[in-house]
Amino acid sequence: MTKLSGLSSIFLGVNPQEARNTVAEYVRHGPWKTFVQPFCGRFGLSEVIAKTAGSAENIWSSDICVFSAIVGLYLAEHDLDVLGFHPTDGELSFLSERISVNRGVDERAAAMLLVLKYAQ
Question: Which runs of consecutive H residues, i.e. helices, occur in 1-119?
């Protein structure tokens, strides 16, 4: 496997090609069936994993930017649907009705932020 030099550069925003190649190599040769990637920034490595593994079905990831995206879209009066934010499974499913497009934007944004808080 490729040795990843300059690991600190991975935290600068866009993952360097060397980091993406290394992750792809680990996915290709590793025994893992499920991938957990908390606190993604731009989901660049999640995309690498999905492309290499052939599917995003077994990737569990969360984004540090979702909070900012919800607030930003809400304040800019843009459509919240672009986020594709639909908690339908598990213990957070009770909030899915509050995120429905049939609700007002205030209630939808508040419910999305509540989901993030519950999920922490």
Answer: 17-29, 44-53, 66-75, 105-119
